[in-house]
Amino acid sequence: MNNKQTVGIGNLIRSEAQRVFKRGRTWAVIAVYLIFVPLECLFLTMMNTSFYDPDHSVPLNSLNTAPFLLRELSILMNFVVIPMLAADSFNGDVSSGALRLALIRPVSRVKMFLAKWAVLGAAVGAMTLFTWAAGTVFGRIFMPAAAETTLMGAGTVGGLGAIGFGLGFYGMAFCIFLALIGVGGIVSRLAPNPVLAYIGMLAVIVGGIYVSDGMAFLLSVSDSIFHFLGHTGGSDAYLGWILCALLAGCVIMGAWSWGRREWMQ
Amino acid sequence: MSLLLYETENSGGVPFGRLLQAEWRRLWKRRTVRLMALAAPLMALVSAKYLLSQNGMLHPGLPEYATAGSMPVLALAEMLVTAFSGMMLVLAGLTVTEEYRSGQLRMGMLRAASLTRIMSAKWLVCLAFMWIQLAAYFVCSAVVGRIWFPNPDTYPLFYEAGQAAYAEGLLYDLGYYALAALVLAALLAVFFWIAAIGRSSTVTLGLGIGFLLLSYLLPTVLTYFRPLFETQEYVRLYFLSLLMVEWEGLAAMLANLHGLRLWNLGVIGGYGLLFGAMTMWVWKRRDSFE
Amino acid sequence: MNTAERDTNPRIVIPQAEPVLVETGNVTKKVRRRALLQNVSFTVERGEICGLLGPNGAGKTTLIRAMTGLIRPDSGDIRIGGRSVVREREAAVLHVGAIVESPIFFPYMTGRDNLDNLALLHPNLPTRKEREQRVREVLEIVRMDKRADERVKTYSLGMKQRLGIAQALLGDPELLILDEPANGLDPMGIRELRELILRLKHELGKTVLVSSHLLDELQKICDRIVVIREGEQVFAGSREEMIGRHSSLEEAFVEMMTS
Q1: Can you give the pLDDT at residue A46?
Q2: What is the pLDDT of residue C5?
Q3: Average pLDDT in the B108-128 region?
Q4: Which residues have C-beta within 8 Å of that of residue C136, sequence separation ≥ 6?
Q5: Mutate to test the interface with A, among B82, B101, B200, B202 (most CBs of A within 10 A)
Q6: Cα torsion angle, A80, A86, A88, A91, sign
Q7: Which residue, among A82, A198, A209, would best test binding to B if mutated, counting the most B CBs under 10 Å from its CB?
Q8: CATH for C4-103+173-258?
Q9: What percentage of chain B carries pLDDT values higher than 90?
Q10: Per residue in A44-85, pLDDT tens?
């Protein structure tokens, strides 16, 4: 018999991943998202134009298309994919009582919270990466060929520069998605059932703009990232710092509240 | 034979009024619902704050400039598509999907009421709750408007429907709220259908939000193809979306812009009938198979 | 109590031979000023079956939640194998397996998937081979091996209870805490459950704490009995002490509840 007294974070993540990916609706929502990726591509070919924000339009070409996929897809991500996954994972299992089976075992609840975050982050990360790859490949094949292009914040760049910009852009987007998952963890802790956890997350996304323009990035993901990367000033100039603060806040509050929570469900 | 007779005699089951009463109590017992009931004053304050900041950027001669008379309408236009939709999704998710999927409804069914009748009662009760919310919101925003917003002798109505003094304006507001009440009924029918087919409450919410997003996205895409259509065709296609009817269509109806009054009423009725019938069909099937 | 058979069993992992395995001292828990538990103090020795008795709403499940570390007592302590559940939960529950309230599983997974999933959370099952082996063992112990590959949502309540015991056995615990395991079982099921609990005690040397309101059942299997009423402990002692001058446990219980 092994004398090790604690469960590694690896096994915790594997166990959480099994629970998430054996749920039929996880795959259903991922499938819906993946269907919308080519639809978005089709939309962009028809338009041949997209927007940095409502006031600045851009003609699309083979190099600059990738980031603009996210203009519409991030809404699907923030309003449907992430709230559903987070409400199910952070709240659904708890309020149904099934998570009790895991909670009575000799594992740290703080680690359990972090494992949930990590698994959802990995799923959303894979979808983000897929969107970037699809956008890059699609742009090269179907959009008007260009040897170089001008991107907000990056100036005039060639093929490699455009890929770099795309990666940076999607990296920022991924950080925003991660932060929203964290917000889901906190909201789920306060909501008595998954319905309210879901609506609570939407309330944070929409209500954020009433609180401060600096919180608008949960609603207008791509516009905010363009403003941030383009150094256009305004409320999105501090996006990096706001994101760091939000992520840190969610880690601390989530870990703290999961560690000392009472499980009456 | 006697058993059969008993069943046919009893097929009416519990009187519908009693069912309504029971559902209303069940709804009101929820803490979530009681909390939501407090939302109206809060939403009115949030809207007031937003509209005051907007006023700073607008010319007082514009219909978008909020005055004591127009405040209830302007405040609703924004909240109808967000907060009111959200509340209805919560109601549908909690009272339909959650209760049905967790088996709580068996308790109701043992008391000889069919799912179809239970669901009709639930829809009416939820609608009643939303209408009360709407009325409360009207009162709150009218009061807030009177206190914090300017009250000129007359102000312009939307879509050049003329100038209105405060009293006329309130009548206009009432008409607007009456139309909003109709849209809420249709949208609640859509959400009840989604809640009936949703396998879990999170799926119901995801689908409901998806419906709203599509209702926003499709008309937006349509705007890119604006040159392809005659104005009449274009606005009619545009207001096929229930969300757009909520957002911009109600004022257009009151001004009877491009004959939209009848068209939009038709759209609202169409959604209500279509989704109401589809919901009934789902529960009828479950009544006979489960 | 016979602790000798324990010593011959190679499965036991806790080295010390202290006779007392569970010790609760003055456990008090209040929620919104209402006392759910008040000064509950009792001990359970190794190899015993202890019955937790009380009417519905007496605080049995609250006590079990506290013993498994799901909630923290406001005051008092619970020690299992010498470790405090309040201060070092992970170490204390290392040798505890439990069903808390009704056994609710992840309904979209099969019985075996559920067990595989939970086995990942036991430090004493580090490799996949060990986990699969252990899952097969516990399924055999509760005689669920035949239906293990069906989804849990197709199971009857009795099967869920048995799967519940299987998951409690996963980490090869010394102490099993079973909350109303007879709920939803038919008479045959109850009899099988009784035989299973006795087998766990005699063949595997487990200590069992079982809550129930089925007095007959407890009378048949328990060595020790704890009775709580409205959160207060009204009795803790051996079965014989409790029955005392009465003709049965039921009579003794009724007197305790009405006095």
Answers
A1: 86
A2: 44
A3: 82
A4: C145
A5: B202
A6: negative
A7: A198
A8: 3.40.50.300
A9: 45
A10: 988 888 888 888 888 898 998 999 999 999 999 999 999 999
Instruction: Report CB contact under 8 Å: A72, B217.
Output: yes
Asked whether the beta carbons of residue C91 and residue A18 sit closer than 8 angstroms, the reply is: no
Substitution target in A21, A22, A101 with the highest count of C β-carbons within 10 Å is A101
Mean pLDDT along residues B151-168: 86
What's phi and psi for A129, nearest 5 deg? -60, -40
pLDDT, tens digit (0-9, with 9 covering 90-100), for C35-69? 899 999 999 999 999 999 988 888 999 999 999 99
Is pLDDT of B227 > 50?
A: yes
Query: What are the structural domain ranges in chain B?
Result: 19-289
Q: Which residues of B touch A206 (CB under 8 A)?
A: 82
- Size (chain A), residues: 265
Say if strands C207-212 and C175-179 run parallel, antiparallel, or are unpaired.
parallel
Q: What is the pLDDT of residues A76-90, one digit of tens each?
A: 999 999 999 999 999
Residues in a beta bridge with B27: none
pLDDT in tens, A119-131: 999 999 999 999 9
User: What is the arithmetic mean of pLDDT over C185-206?
Assistant: 90
Contact yes or no for C43/C20 (Cβ under 8 A): yes
Of C89, C117, C126, the CB nearest to A18: C117
Share of chain C above pLDDT 70, in %: 93
Strand pairing report for B155-156 and A155-157 = unpaired
Contact of A131 with A37, CB cutoff 8 Å: yes
Beta carbons of A193 and B46 less than 8 Å apart: no
Neighboring chain C residues of A92 at a CB cutoff of 8 Å? none
Give the pTM: 0.89
Return the partners of chain A (3 or more C-beta pairs < 8 Å). Answer: B, C
d(CA A89, CA A212): 29
Please report residues of C whose CB lies closer than 8 A to that of A108: 90
Instruction: List chain A residues with CB under 8 Å of C61.
Output: none
Which of the four pLDDT bands, split at 50, 70 and 90, describes residue B160?
confident
Mean pLDDT of all residues in C147-174: 92
Whether B202 sits inside 8 A of A80 (CB atoms) is no
Relative orientation angle of helices B71-79 and B39-55, to the nearest 10 degrees: 110
Beta-ladder partners of C83: C80
pLDDT of residue B289 exceeding 70: no
Residue indicated by tokens 């956008």:
A135
Torsion of CA A51, A71, A64, A132, to 10 degrees: 180
Q: What is the mean pLDDT of chain A?
A: 91
Interchain contact C84–A (C-beta under 8 A): no
